[in-house]
Specification:
This protein is of the alpha+beta class. About 20% of the residues lie in helices and about 25% in strands. Strand 2 and strand 3 form a beta hairpin.
């Protein structure tokens, strides 16, 4: 499944500088990083976010999770006045934007959606973006993406928490009780020396 023509036509029309990266079929950002031998920080994870006033697209590094509470603060700081911020079910995305589950492109302008970008993405020069395909992605400079989408930049991500497996200490097994031995002194055999008979010479 190649990058949809709608996306390449949009990028070409805008004069964007990008490269199409072909890879094996992947469905998650983690798998994309493993396949392309990229750091998770270089893989862009994009999400559709729903509010009572509509939808927005958010992009952040695959190495982090989104904080909806932080995103809400940023949105309201820009005068959105939203009370509810949530990730909708995949069926909503499929129905409204006619894309397969997990194949929403990172370019919100295609659907006339506002884009929010996590500030931590500015730490990398180039990143890999979702293109609406499971076998092809788009590599682009972060500055080029900002020039193209004009996202609202803020900090709304959190470091992924890795659950550590706690190893249970092995149960102590009771040592078998030692058999009590009586401390008796070893028997000593008494030997009696026979007196030598001496005969007096007459």
């Amino acid at each position: 499944m190649p990058v949809p023509k709608k996306i390449t036509n949009y990028l070409d029309k805008q004069g964007a500088k990008y490269a199409i990266v072909t890879h094996k079929k992947v469905y998650t950002a983690y798998d994309a990083a493993q396949t392309m031998r990229k750091k998770l920080e270089e893989i862009v994870k994009n999400l559709l976010i729903q509010t009572e006033k509509g939808f927005v697209v958010v992009v952040l590094p695959a190495s982090k999770n989104i904080s909806l509470s932080k995103l809400k603060k940023i949105m309201n700081a820009h005068g959105k006045g939203v009370k509810k911020v949530e990730i909708p079910k995949e069926g909503v995305m499929v129905r409204l934007f006619k894309v397969k589950p997990g194949a929403l492109p990172a370019f919100g302008s295609l659907h006339k959606l506002e884009v929010y970008m996590d500030k931590s993405l500015q730490k990398v020069k180039k990143a890999v973006f979702s293109s609406g395909s499971f076998t092809e992605s788009i590599e682009m400079a972060i500055k080029e993406f900002e020039k193209l989408e004009k996202p609202i930049v803020g900090i709304f991500s959190e470091v992924k928490k890795i659950k550590k497996q706690i190893q249970k200490k092995p149960k102590r097994t009771k040592k078998p009780a030692k058999k009590k031995t009586s401390k008796r002194k070893p028997a000593v055999r008494k030997t009696t020396k026979k007196a030598k008979k001496t005969t007096k010479k007459k």
